[in-house]
Amino acid sequence: MIGVLVRRSTWDYLAAPSSKCQLIRLTATVSRRPWEEPSTQGVSSCGNVKLLSSISCKNSSSLAGVKKEQTRCGRLEYLDWMPSPFTNAGKTMSNYKKLSKFRLTSLVVITAMGGYAMAPAAFDISTFAMCALGTGLVSAAANSINQYHEVPFDSQMSRTKNRVLVTGQMTPLHSIGFAIASASTGLCLLYFGVNGLTAALGAGNLLLYTCVYTPMKRVSILNTWVGSIVGAIPPLMGWAGCAGTLDVGAWILAGLLYAWQFPHFNALSWNLRPDYSRAGYRMMAVTNPSLCRRTALRYTMAISGLSLLAPIFDVTNVWFALETMPLNLYFCYLAYEFHQKSDSGSSRKLFRFSLLHLPVLMLLFLVNKKNWYFTSSEQEETTIMDNKTISIHPPTSGLGSVLPVAVAAVPR
Questions:
Q1: pLDDT score at 89
Q2: Is the pLDDT of residue 159 over 70?
Q3: Which residue windows are transmembrane per the record (predicted)?
Q4: Chain-centre distance for alpha carbon 35
Q5: Residue spans per domain, the chain
Q6: Residue 373 has what pLDDT?
């Protein structure tokens, strides 16, 4: 009996990333009529099975049947790679997590929530949660768009060649859809759940990262300064989410985050120079190594200066300047060592300490915050208690006791 080719007779199987398998595409000519109920047994009993692209997989037991069919009635051919339409729910969530650069997004959320906690205003748990969730979604959208644009260049770097879009674990359409959904949801949460200023900062940062910083990475070393602005905006978002305004404390905090980006990223990029050069990125570490080291040293010194400004402008108490002094001085020492030695060892020390420096600095900023505020409910209870105290114990001296008598004495 001559079989007919059923439309849904092509199966694409993509093995797990850990197994490092290529795509398997199986096309079967099934010996049944197309209107009959589909049966999985039709593939195993078919007369013509074509295995188009396959390699062995050590960790995947699901390939046993495919190998069997190849031995019985198949022939091996090679085609170009194609993405798989079949996905596992857990695998999909893991891919979206990678697409959002979860660790980087978590750092963005932490800095934003640090700004919220340090603002001189009452803490509100619902606004705090909305601000955190909205900031995280906007950051995830920005990272997704960034990876979408940089697939050809990420494939040339050892650090990024295993990203989900480069390896084909997700399609570009998935990344764009995820970015649109995350950005729209995140901005709505920031606008309706927090305030307009926070939403505007989030939208501006999204555009700055995707439309300015990402393409500038291949044009000019100024991309590092633009990227530092992107990193300084999340604490402003948190501060605006809590206080509704941006005062001098917000700008000092943002300045600390802005300055911290340079020793952190310059030390990171120093050991990635071959990758950046191969991919065509214009980084200071590649085009001007001496400027890269000088910039890292200058901005560690700027962090020390900004830490001294915080108590001067009455944002923190004087203990903040004293407690951060040894932390900042050691940071400057590592940057100076990197400037002098310009080797991979000194750059790694500077980079690793930068990961410790930022959370400790923000924690000290929070602990030494000058003004602490109650929540709105606690303020209302305090006001009620004060009113009761005044009514029970009226003033016995001063203008409060004289004023009623004076008013009564006025002729009408």
A1: 65
A2: yes
A3: 102-119, 189-209, 221-242, 248-268, 296-313, 350-367
A4: 50
A5: 1-33+46-54+65-86, 87-244, 247-371
A6: 64
| 317-345 pLDDT tens trace | 999 999 999 999 999 999 999 999 989 99
| DSSP state at residue 316 | B
Q: How far apart are CA 136 and CA 262, in angstroms?
A: 23
Kind plus residue range of the DSSP H or E element containing 69? helix 64-73
Residues in the chain: 412
**Other CB atoms within 10 A of residue 60 CB:** 16
User: What is the pTM assigned to this prediction?
Assistant: 0.70
pLDDT of 16 > 90? The answer is no
Query: What is the distance between the alpha carbons of residues 275 and 153, in angstroms, rounded to a whole number?
Result: 10
Q: What is the pLDDT of residue 384?
A: 38
> What DSSP designation does 217 have?
T
| Mean predicted confidence (pLDDT) in 31-55 | 38
Residue 27: phi and psi, rounded to 5, are: -115, 125
119-141 core/surface letters (b: 16 or more CB in 10 A; e: else)? bbebbbeebbebbbbbbbbbbbb
Burial of 115 (C-beta count, 10 Å sphere; 0-12/13-18/19+): buried
* Record: fold of 87-244: Tetracycline Repressor; domain 2 (1.10.357)
CA nearest neighbour of 116 among 313, 230, 250, 258:
250
Number of other residues whose CB lies within 10 A of the CB of residue 114: 23
Q: Give φ, ψ of 10 to 5 degrees.
A: -115, 120
Q: Note the pLDDT tens digit of each residue in 88-122.
A: 666 888 888 999 999 999 999 999 999 999 998 88
The Cα 43–Cα 29 span in angstroms is 8
Kindly state the DSSP code that residue 30 receives in the 8-state scheme: B
Mean pLDDT value of segment 58-85: 42
Environment class of residue 396 by beta-carbon count within 10 Å: exposed (0-12), middle (13-18) or buried (19+)? exposed
Q: 84: Cβ–Cβ under 8 A, 6 or more apart, which residues? A: 12, 13, 14, 23
User: Is the Cβ–Cβ distance between 315 and 248 less than 8 Å?
Assistant: yes
For residue 149, pLDDT over 70 is answered with yes
CATH of region 247-371: 1.20.120
